[in-house]
Amino acid sequence: MYSQLPLLSDITDPLLTQSLQHKLNNKTKPLGSLGRIEDLALTLGEILGTENPVLDQPQMVVFAADHGLAARGVSAYPSDVTWQMVENFLAGGAAVSVLARQHGLALTVVDCGVMHNFLMDMPAGATRAGLQVRKVAWGAGDSSKGPAMTKAECAKAVAQGQALVKELPGNALLLGEMGIGNTSAASLLLSKLTGLDIAQCTGAGTGLDAQAVLRKTDVLRTVLARHARVTGPMDVLAVMGGLEIATMVGAVLQAADERRVVVVDGFIATSAVLVAHAVQPLVLQRCVFAHRSGERGHEFMLQHLGAHALLDLGMRLGEGSGAALAWPLLQSACAILREMASFESAGVSEKADNGESVA
Q1: Beta-strand (E) ranges in the chain?
Q2: 3-state helix, strand, coil in the chain (%, to 5)
Q3: Residue 64 CA, distance from chain mean position
Q4: Using an 8 Å Cβ cutoff, are 149 and 188 in contact?
Q5: What pLDDT digit, counting tens, does each position of 160-195 carry?
Q6: What is the DSSP letter of 170?
Q7: Cα 74 → chain centroid
Q8: Which residues does 216 contact at the CB level (< 8 Å), separation at least 6?
Q9: Which residue in the list 295, 319, 339, 356 is annotated as catalytic?
Q10: Is the dihedral of CA 92, 101, 59, 173 positive or negative?
């Protein structure tokens, strides 16, 4: 069913890594003094396969869908907020819309399974700027009563994500999402795929109080018990995930296959990478994790993946907002590699082995 998933190659290139490290070490600065920006520059050079990386036509993609589990009271907001926020994205009023404009990111919103017709009253074949309608179903099912998706729906969503990326220009994909109830889906994926207790994986989401978080946790524990026999990352994705997460899994795998830089936002986006990693571990070679979310389970996701986020701002908005905020750091890292002078080219004295400077 998933026979079209790409088989990722290992992009490890010791000679390129050595060359990149040598180039960074010989910039006009004390060794390692740019800290994690140097690590980021090295990573970007490795992903793009060059000592002079250029980030070209970056694509911010917000994947949107509804969740039947939201009817169980796992969110502080009603499901209608999903489609209303999609309209906000398209109107340019959401946080990610503002940040995308600020940083020159092309913004695309993908209807993967929102319970709303965004082309209502429009002629057949009509389109809306910035919107891709790739609706697999009118929302995922309630995973406390049955699977969130059939295997066929999940496979179609993954394929939609792959097809979408194939059509997008550029060499960088920034992940965003929108879906009332999707922190629950991400928490379930984290618990099932890592073995962590669901209480460790469950947070406030859109702003639940402590008692509501406990009730949410109880609902999610019921879901896990119902699907206790389900194994395999794609089957787990189908029964507990969401249409936007499944579409994002396909997008991540396709972007990784094309050797694009994948800029991962917060908790929900990382849950898609968690699934993709379980299928193709080499996907992590292409990922940059933008920030550590304030959502409780995100830290455990990052730990499981061995990933270190660039920013830690206590954010938990989603939408791709953290990825957009981290974007200038990626641009700066590339610029350092390409444009910063070496000691030799600038005629600046280097530090000698005995601590004295030499011309």
Answers
A1: 59-65, 106-113, 131-133, 172-178, 261-264, 287-289, 350-351, 357-358
A2: 50, 10, 40
A3: 13
A4: no
A5: 999 999 999 999 999 999 999 999 999 999 999 999
A6: S
A7: 22
A8: 73, 74, 184, 202, 205, 208
A9: 319
A10: negative
Active site (annotated) includes residue 299: no
Q: How many residues does the chain have?
A: 359
pLDDT 10s digits, 39-59: 999 999 999 999 999 999 999
Kindly report the backbone phi and psi dihedral angles of residue 357, in degrees, each rounded to the nearest multiple of 5, phi listed first: -80, 145
User: For 269-283, how does the pLDDT look when each residue is reduced to its tens digit (9 = 90+)?
Assistant: 999 999 999 999 999
Task: Report phi then psi at 50, rounded to 5.
Answer: -155, 155
Alpha-carbon separation of residue 346 from 23, 24, 29, 147, 334 (angstroms): 14, 14, 11, 62, 19
Distance (Å, rounded) from C-alpha 198 to C-alpha 57? 39
Query: Considering only 235-239, 247-251, 288-292, 348-352, which range has the smallest mean pLDDT?
Result: 348-352
CA torsion, ordered 53, 42, 332, 261, to nearest 10 deg = 60
Q: What distance in Å separates the CA atoms of residue 25 and residue 220, rounded to the nearest whole number?
A: 49
**According to the model, what pLDDT value does residue 351 have?**
72
Euclidean distance between the first and the last CA atom of the chain, given in angstroms as a whole number: 63
Say whether pLDDT at 359 is over 50.
no
Please name the residues in contact with 46: beta carbons below 8 A apart, sequence gap of 6 or more. 11, 12, 13, 16, 17, 20, 285
Q: Specify the 3-state DSSP secondary structure of 123.
A: coil
Q: Label residue 206 by pLDDT band (50, 70, 90).
A: confident
Identity of residue 306? G
